[in-house]
Amino acid sequence: MSPYLAAEDLSMFGRDPWWLVVIKAVFCFAFLMVTVLFSIVWERKVVAWMQLRIGPNRHGPWGMLQSLADGIKLMLKEDVIVKRADKVVYVLAPIVAAIPAFMAIAVIPFGPAGNEISIFGQRTTMQLTDLPIAMLYILAVASVGIYGIVLAGWSSGSTYPLLGGLRACAQMISYEIAMGAAFASVFLYSGSMSTSAIVEAQQDRWYVVLLPVSFVIYVVTMVGETNRAPLDMPESEGDLVGGFNTEYSSIKFAMFMLAEYVNMVTVSAVTTTLFLGGWRAPWPVSTFWEGANHGWWPMLWFVVKVQLLLFFFIWLRGTLPRVRYDQLMKLGWKVLIPVSVVWLMLVATVRTLRNENYDFADIALYVGGGVLALLLLSFVVDMFRERTKAAERPVEPPAGFDATAGGFPVPPLPGQELPPVPRRRPRRERELIVSGGPDTQSDGSLDGKEASDG
């Protein structure tokens, strides 16, 4: 069997008794909730550190119980339903947004499928379940969660939430195409859509090394899919007050906030599974320690990788400003989608050549030649296009600069010149005029005044 194809053996799943399935499901839910509670405090602490502030320091030791206090406060606040809202959809929208966020963790492996652990004397895998199409299942439940945001904006009966819901819909369409293409590159190399098989296929080399472009594309799209800064356009408080959740309060608002952070944990777990070796120990540790990938240790490596990706989310929020909406759409349609499609074609070509037993040098030669030919062709096309535009562009005289255009004085832009300043009178003549002396070189305005006086 080729080392690039993973053995898709899922016979170890589906054999657990019902009580063990319940325990594992409760563990997945508890893992997400505890990680969310920690992430909220961690985000406030890290952003405060970046902005030279103290951050939460009142509830619990070092303020670590701040997120729990916030959750209790939101539960006890007054729950308001606006009059113009569609009440059924208005109430269901937070539920639709929150529930799918918890569902994707069911197929994420916390440990190797072949290394079973013992729970109350029952041998089981460190994964709730797995499917031959597990990644398609993750894509499906992630798409359903976006509809909660869209329905929340529509059902509120208000203008700003509606705009936020429309932005969320456009953002989902724009970024999921590139995300699917990044997934497809992983499927081509692993030979499977099963999450456990994808991790097994990264035994020799993580896919972040083999597929760096897919990794970068997915990292950008996961920020857009979770509506996090700098791509948090559906809830940008700078121009939409609060976006899709403007009319929500109390526990409903808390569910939207919970869905956002759970989605952050989910996409971080998916990134770890697809590109960072999943539960595998990093390279230096796995080299000198044979037991690093056995027992309960794989869960430690998995959690550490997820927390590093969550720190990346926090780092982006504290570093980059929010982009404009046209920049968001341009990044999705004019950059991510073309790059992901071209990269997918390149990966498919390399996989086909490897299946035909071509040497690595021949593959690099063919692929490099094709890339250079494509770049040369695009350069020639752009050069002729610019020449054609320059020939067709009419030559217009430069417009005069008006410093008070629009009612306010403005400085000149590059390429503009200020109008010439009228020559001032010599100082001696100005003193004569002020003192009442003769004005032998009066301008037109003074001549007119003297004529009227005469």
Automatic annotation (TrEMBL):
UniProt-annotated stretches for the region Disordered: 395-454
Positions of transmembrane segments: 18-42, 88-111, 131-154, 175-199, 205-224, 261-279, 299-319, 331-351, 363-384
Annotated compartments: Cell membrane; Membrane
Pfam families noted in UniProt: NADHdh
Molecular function terms, GO-annotated: NADH dehydrogenase activity; oxidoreductase activity, acting on NAD(P)H, quinone or similar compound as acceptor; quinone binding
Membrane topology (UniProt): Multi-pass membrane protein
GO BP terms: aerobic respiration
Catalytic activity: a quinone + NADH + 5 H(+)(in) = a quinol + NAD(+) + 4 H(+)(out)
Subunit structure: NDH-1 is composed of 14 different subunits. Subunits NuoA, H, J, K, L, M, N constitute the membrane sector of the complex.
Family note: Belongs to the complex I subunit 1 family.
HAMAP family reported in the protein's UniProt record: NDH1_NuoH (MF_01350)
PANTHER family: NADH DEHYDROGENASE SUBUNIT 1 (PTHR11432), NADH-UBIQUINONE OXIDOREDUCTASE CHAIN 1 (PTHR11432:SF3)
Name by which UniProt lists this protein: NADH-quinone oxidoreductase subunit H
Organism encoding this protein: Streptomyces dysideae
